[in-house]
Design a protein that fits this description.
Distance between the termini: 140 Å
Strand content: 25-35%
Number of helices: 6
Number of strands: 14
Structural class: alpha+beta
Shape: elongated
Helix content: 25-40%
Largest sheet: 7 strands, antiparallel
């Protein structure tokens, strides 16, 4: 009986052990759990799991891309401007205006070319240098004729505002004509041209001050005031404007005191900014508007002769004007 009882107990114990759940492994130590958390966080960071940091990186990348595109666009614009200047030069049919110091400008402006029939009188733009007398259809327009100044045989005052020129050669579109009668708008302008044609050195101003360009421009006024037509002159020493041609000086500034020549939204305008007052009312800048963009380009091209490059805005450094 005792043996049977022991066998029965062994069988019961084996049966219970077969139904017991498998044993669980012991939990990892705290240090192992912390290391695992760090590794998971690092994986998330690499995979872009940190949304805030990823967003900042994307913004920086987009900003860099925008800056790169803006720089590329600016470079393309500069290239196109250079190509346009080259194209205009390649299409030039006439010789460039001689504006070297060896052919100094004496004066320029509008005079009326008189003919026998008053209906045929024409207002023309004349340019007189030490070597040439040239006249055009208009300021910045097509050249009509040119003659060497040495070809002028005589200069006479032939009326209140009239000047008669006689040449030793034909001049102009009228074949066989070797003389020309010009009429100035007033007696002061007539005197100016007579002095220049006879090279009256006493009337030309300081010997170290050469005229670079001159003519009428609209002085653009501040808001609520009226724009005025004024006569401007640029020399090798100063930039000035007058009430009218040969009139009272209204404003003047030495070139050394001019900081910048810039453009405006209007293609006919340019702005002169100085570090000292340059107008009667004490303004430090003047906005000038030419009658056409071609005349504006002429002024800028002349300014390139006397101003260093850094004083001209980038948009004006490519400005090109050629006498046609």
């Amino acid at each position: 009986k005792n043996a049977n009882a022991r066998s029965s107990c062994k069988r019961s114990a084996l049966h219970m052990s077969s139904k017991a759940p498998p044993s669980q492994p012991p939990p990892p130590p705290p240090s192992a759990r912390a290391g695992k958390s760090k590794s998971v966080a690092s994986v998330k960071s690499v995979m872009g799991g940190d949304d805030g940091e990823s967003s900042d990186e994307e913004n920086e990348a987009q900003k860099s891309e925008r800056e790169r595109q803006a720089e590329a666009a600016k470079q393309r614009q500069t290239t196109r401007a250079a190509e346009e200047k080259s194209r205009r030069l390649s299409q030039l049919k006439y010789q460039p205006m001689d504006i070297s110091k060896h052919d100094e400008l004496l004066c320029e402006g509008y005079l009326t070319k008189l003919k026998g029939n008053p209906l045929q009188n024409r207002n023309r733009f004349f340019r007189l240098t030490e070597k040439h007398l040239i006249y055009y259809e208009e300021n910045g327009g097509k050249r009509i004729a040119s003659v060497e100044k040495s070809s002028i045989l005589s200069t006479e005052s032939s009326g209140k505002h009239k000047i008669t020129l006689k040449f030793d050669t034909e001049i102009g579109r009228d074949k066989g004509k070797s003389s020309m009668v010009l009429e100035a708008p007033n007696s002061r302008v007539k005197e100016k041209w007579l002095n220049a044609l006879t090279l009256n050195l006493q009337m030309r101003g300081p010997p170290d001050e050469e005229v670079i360009v001159e003519g009428y421009l609209i002085k653009v006024q501040p808001l609520c005031t009226t724009n005025m037509n004024r006569y401007f002159r640029l020399t090798t020493r100063r930039f000035s404007y007058y009430r009218d041609e040969c009139g009272d000086v209204y404003g003047s500034v030495l070139l050394d005191n001019i900081d910048l020549i810039s453009a405006t939204e209007d293609k006919r305008e340019f702005k002169v900014s100085a570090n000292v007052p340059m107008t009667k009312t004490g303004f430090f800048d003047v906005v000038c508007r030419a009658p056409t963009q071609t005349v504006r380009d002429k002024w800028i091209a002349m300014m390139q002769r006397v101003f260093p490059q850094h004083k001209l805005a980038t948009s004006l450094q490519m400005c090109c004007y050629m006498d046609a």
